[in-house]
Amino acid sequence: MKGEHIMQEIAWQASLILMALVALGFAFVAINSGGRYEDYAPLQKRAYRLRLALFWGVVLVFGPTMIYTLVNLPYDAAHARGVRDARPAQVIQATGHLWYWELSETEIATGHPVEFRVTSADVNHGFGIYDTNMKLVAQVQAMPGYINTLRHTFDEAGTYKIMCLEYCGTVHHAMVAELTVAGR
Ligand code: CUA
Q1: What is the pLDDT of residue 39?
Q2: Is the pLDDT of residue 2 over 80?
Q3: CA–CA separation, 152 vs 80, rounded Å?
Q4: Main-chain dihedrals φ then ψ at residue 127, nearest 5 degrees
Q5: Which residue ranges have their beta carbon within 6 Å of ligand 1?
Q6: Atom 1 (ligand 1): residue with closest C-alpha?
Q7: 145 and 167 in contact (C-beta within 8 Å)?
């Protein structure tokens, strides 16, 4: 979605500016570190006051920002939704291999719950489902010896992508599979 791209752009620009400020701070300290240690007591007092103000400033600015940006993560949303939706689900077995996904089915109907039973045949992989805008909608670990279940209901038709979310070797990036979601 457009709004999210703008948010990402803003976050990226903001982090660049912050990184530049930190670098400037380091440069300032490096340049001014040649002085003598004289009477530091009053300076220290002022620095401590400033530090306290900075601390609360950071808490007040980044606390709400963190909460605001984390509420839309798909982890809990997908889980809460799957728990609420008690209808029998379409079961899809998903196995990660070096370096491909093996899926028992790839055709899904919109509005119908799907339960992915996710495991791995070799090493740890990450099973991530992306919508047509390449936004992560649900994810779970694919681990050898375990079956992790992931329930999700696809509301929008389209071609979804499954991509590996955990670095698993040289061809990690090619672990892509597709799910076709269509209305009934
Ligand atoms: Cu499988 Cu990265």
Answers
A1: 75
A2: no
A3: 10
A4: -95, 105
A5: 96, 125, 164, 166-168, 172, 175
A6: 125
A7: no
